[in-house]
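Input/output pair, single chain:
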Amino acid sequence: MTTTQENMAPTTERVDSVSAAAYRIRHHALTMGEVQGQGYVGQALGAADMLAVVYSDQLRFRADDPEWAERDRFLLSTGHYAIGHYAALAEAGVVPVEELETYGSDDSRLPMSGMSTYTPGMEISGGSLGHGLTIAVGMALGLRHQGSNARIYNFLSDGELDEGSTWEAAMGAHHHQLGNLTAMVDINALQADGKTDSVLRTEPITDKWEAAGWYTQRVDGNHLGELLEAFDSAAAQAAAVGRPSVILCDTKVGRGVPLLEEREKAHFMRIEEHEWQLCREQLTAGYEGKAA
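Output:
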C-alpha cells in the first residue's frame, strides 16, 4: 500500500461485514449474468470488493430515498460495469433483489449499460468512457458552492486513463482544490482491445496522479483490509477545500470464481449454461473457506 499516512487497521468485525457484502454482490452479479448468458461479469466480480467497501462502509445514502439532497454521490464512469453497480444497489437495498432477474430485458430498469434515467441510485449515464471524472469535478464544485457536505465518489477504469479528458479533469480537480472528491480506479490490466499495457502504457500511474496534485494511494483492490484503510485515509483528507483523493486498485477479473479468473477473452464473457451453477459453487466455497 502506497500512502503517506499511517492508519489504524480495520477491525475483524468490520472486515467480515464488508466481506459478506462483497460475497453477496458477486452472487447477485452471477444471477444477472445468467439472465443474458454473457456480459461484463468478470469486471463485476473483480470490482465487488471496491463496491462493497463504498456501499456498505463509506457512502452516506438513504435506500428509501435515492434523491436525498445530502447524500454522497457515487458516479459510475464505466457504464458497462453497471451489472456490478446494480448488484451493489441491491445489496444496499436501493433496488429489490428480485428485480435483478430483469437485467438487460425489455422495459427493465436495469439496462446492460448504466442509465441514470432508468435506475434508482444511478447518478450518471455511462457509455463513452473518459467522461465520468469530468462530471465528478463539476458536481463536486457545484456541491461546494451550495455549501453541501456531500462527497463525490467516482469509479473509473484503468482503460479510461488513456483518455485525455480524464487528465484534464484531474488537473481541474487539483486547481479547484476539490477535497470533497475521491476517485477510485479499477486497474485490472484489461480493456476491450486487449491488455491495457499493450493498448497504451499508462505507468507509472501513481507518479502521474501525485504529479497532478492528488492524494494518491495504491492498494490490492481485492484485499479488504487495504481497501478499508485507503478509504479511511481518503476520508480523513476530505474537506470542502483541499486535495482530491485517488485510490488506485489492482484487481483481478473474475475474482472469487476460479473458473472465470483464468478465462481468455475475459472483457466480455460468454459463459455456458452448465457453468453458472459451478461458478456459484466455486464462489461459495471460496467465501466459506475464508470464513472458516
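The chain has ten helices and nine strands. The beta strands are 38-39, 73-76, 152-157, 181-187, 190-191, 194-195, 215-220, 245-250, 269-270.
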